[in-house]
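Re-run with default settings, no changes from the original entry. Doing this only to confirm the output is reproducible before filing.
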Amino acid sequence: MSKLKLVYNSVKTNAFNIMFWAPLANWGFVLAGLNDLNKLPIFVSEKMTATLVVYSLLFMRYSLAINPKNYLLFSCHVTNVLIQSFLLGRKLKYEAENKQE
């Protein structure tokens, strides 16, 4: 029984638990945003981009509020806020320029 308990404790405290895999999966949002930088602004959804900015802002706060602090999750969401904000700015600028014409 002690070997089973030892394995359970090592899995529970392993660095590759949810504190690792969840932030790793969230980097998919960042990669998608980087891919969208190559697209024309007309193809960027302002509602979805704004939603991703709010989502990442909320989870930035969450990543520092939990114990232990998850700096990998925090860095992922900081990067996502920057990219999505840039995309949203590009889209709004594009819409404003085309509205005037």
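The two ends are 75 Å apart (CA to CA). The chain has one domain: 15-100.
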